[in-house]
Amino acid sequence: LTAPVLTAPVLGTPASGTMTNVTGLPPAGVVGTAAIIGTNTFTGAQIGTLTALTSSSSSIAINLATNNNFSHTTSENTTLALPSNPVAGQSGVITITQGGTARTLAYNTFWKFAGGTVPTLTSSAGAVDVFAYSVESATRATAQLIKDVS
Fold it and tell me: Facing residues of 73 across strands?
């Protein structure tokens, strides 16, 4: 008997787009999460999923480890809470749609706005506002509310 020879798998062409300059992959035989180090160049769209947020006890919990882009339809006056797992450099949007009754949204002090002015949602049923954010550190994110995009 001779020892079998294992070779690295060959990956086919992605369905759309390519990624180059990937380094920091785990050594052969190691299974787990790969660390991406260096610059990545993408051609074609890179599309993530959209996570729906819900409000409970007048608070919207947000876990930034789950996604970059979120949606929320108001059902009560509520506060966008301190997010869990913020990482500097992450950015995204939360699309906020007013439910059948217009509601208010307050913000945890983690969220920082230009001039220190906290924005208010568009106050009509069915209105759509887009909350854009960029995480600066574990303790703050710069944000802007783009109002009435419906």
Answer: 97
d(CA 103, CA 83): 21
pLDDT band at 56 (very low <50, low <70, confident <90, very high): very high
pTM for this prediction: 0.73
Round to whole Å and give the CA distance between 119 and 40.
Answer: 35
144: region left, alpha or beta (phi > 0 left; psi from -120 to 50 alpha): beta
**53-59 long-range contacts, Cβ below 8 Å, gap at least 24?**
53/94
CA 6 centroid distance within chain: 39
- For the stretch 129-148, pLDDT in tens is 999 999 999 999 999 999 99
Instruction: Please check whether residue 69 is in contact with residue 48, taking contact to mean a CB–CB distance below 8 angstroms.
Output: yes
